[in-house]
């Protein structure tokens, strides 16, 4: 099995191009609160999470991002000292502990324990289970990943981040099998997108699955470093999947989804690799400055340069 990519949402430094990858994406409130949290002002995080309520995708996105800075665990513990029963403080500590464990700065067992405490404080909240799934995505067994995904899904069947993590992990099965249009990651993505409501961003999940499978195959058999040169993107099935996702995006009215820029990056990458420059250009316009490391880093590329080269080529063609 090839090594996994960096955990989704991992922040990278800006390259010489000045392009910065910020996991907060276009959530300006989150960016402001994250800055205050790093200075120890956890009351801003309390207000933000209270206002987020049970918008589970947004809550998960915000807590994962707030948990990323190395100082977040300490401030979450301070918050818990002041408000020992706070489910938001417990969830923040869980996410921060998972981030620390993924950096090798915390024992995985301690991170799992923090997640279990958080889940006990708010049984309906999928976020503590998402945090465990983030950990298992890299450090857990396949059985753990499936079990934790089910725990998230029973609380929020359309959970965006959880479906992305599951697709990435499933894509790594049978890495040496080569191109297989019947691979289980495709079945999973089709099933999830069909189960979701018509306005759900999970409609793009088949593109995510196709891209994650490319990452695995490219690492396993040395496919071209430039994805646009790989036949993975020009098969009949690939064209059907990408056309359906692009057509759905043209009709979609959910631009306020907290992780929509991630979907747009995957879709722009796929369209560019397919050779549909005009469609890719429309997506690049919508992405704006909110590029994401995945999928531009696939396979083992500098994501800054890959994103800028694709964007410039697409925009220059229209």
From TrEMBL:
Lineage: superkingdom: Bacteria
Chain segments carrying region Disordered: 1-23
Protein name per the record: Tetratricopeptide repeat protein
Source species of the chain: Streptomyces pacificus
